[in-house]
Amino acid sequence: xxxxxxxxxxxxxxxxxxxxxxxxxxxxxxxxxxxxxxxxxxxxxxxxxxxxxxxxxxxxxxxxxxxxxxxxxxxxxxxxxxxxxxxxxxxxxxxxxxxxxxxxxxxxxxxxxxxxxxxxxxxxxxxxxxxxxxxxxxxxxxxxxxxxxxxxxxxxxxxxxxxxxxxxxxxxxxxxxxxxxxxxxxxxxxxxxxxxxxxx
Length: 200
Prior knowledge:
32% of the residues lie in helices and 22% in strands. It is built from eight helices and twelve strands. Strands 1, 2, 3, 4, 5, 8, 9, 10, 11 and 12 form a ten-stranded mixed sheet that branches. A two-stranded antiparallel sheet has the order 6-7. A hairpin with a 2-residue loop joins strand 9 (139-140) and strand 10 (143-151). 44% of the residues are buried.
């Protein structure tokens, strides 16, 4: 199994960590304030989730990034080239508490994130569900909760799809980033916040 890192310990990062721990998967989680500020979360999710620096989390084979939009450049600056490792882009170009959309100048948010992680194979996922649905039991109404993903690298998508299935979700591949990234982008896309269940 690939090593997993999480950059960002807000609602989505913590929810992803809880989903991993519930399924017995290990990861290193990091935030901008340092490992010592994550002691509560790591105590809750021990022994599977440990705190580290952003550099340590970003060194994993597969790294989920979920950071407030305006803080992404600072969070990812100065890191080594990603050298073909997988980045899961779980970010949305919007921030609480005002939820004012960021100015993207006609670009998809995933295009902007890709520019911040040179050399990475980017897969968009885990951004379209509310955090409580990511961390909760994906079995619902006799089926499995749907989790969309998209990307331009087939092998990277296959690995993320396998992880999504391991976590108990029904993964649905929306195709390349130009298509799937647009469909799941919040705000703007039609799929965010839809709680869909797949049967069979």
